[in-house]
Amino acid sequence: MKTQGEIEAEICQGLRQFEQDYMGRGPADVRAHLIGDLLVVRLLGVLTAAEQQLVASLPEAKGRELLKQVRTQLIETARQKLEEMVQQVTDVKVTSLHHDISTKTGEEVVLFTLAKPPSFREKKSK
User: Fold this and answer.
1) CATH code for 4-114?
2) Cα-Cα-Cα-Cα dihedral of 50, 43, 76, 60, to 10°?
3) What does the alpha-carbon distance between residue 9 and residue 13 come to, in Å, rounded to a whole number?
4) In terms of C-beta density within 10 A (0-12 exposed, 13-18 middle, 19 or more buried), how is residue 8 classed?
5) Which of 6-10, 58-62, 101-105 ranks highest by mean pLDDT?
6) Which of 5, 36, 52, 55 is the most buried (most CB within 10 A)?
7) What is the residue-averaged pLDDT of the chain?
8) What are the residue ranges spanned by the domains of the chain?
9) Contacts with 63 (C-beta within 8 Å, 6 or more apart), sequence order
């Protein structure tokens, strides 16, 4: 049985690989937090150079809206793959997935709601 930290680390690696495969580059940093039946993943530095240029070249609201639509569509297209990865790591079914991205900070948040809190072993203290 995995520790909570091991589960979170595997989720980080899975989302990093997803970004690499789907966006052509990985995020600067990924952090996952398992809180009961919620899995919160925060990705930093995810905007590609092309996305940054797009946001900068259009009026603020239009650029933000367009980028969010594209990223949301990518997540929806890959939803099954992401949910399968999370289920494989946690051994718990995903009941919902929520997503948002900031065009100002380049931060992306993905929230998975799980059917129940995953089981994990306590980390051995030294």
Assistant:
1) 3.30.980
2) -50
3) 6
4) buried
5) 6-10
6) 55
7) 92
8) 4-114
9) 54, 55, 56, 57, 103
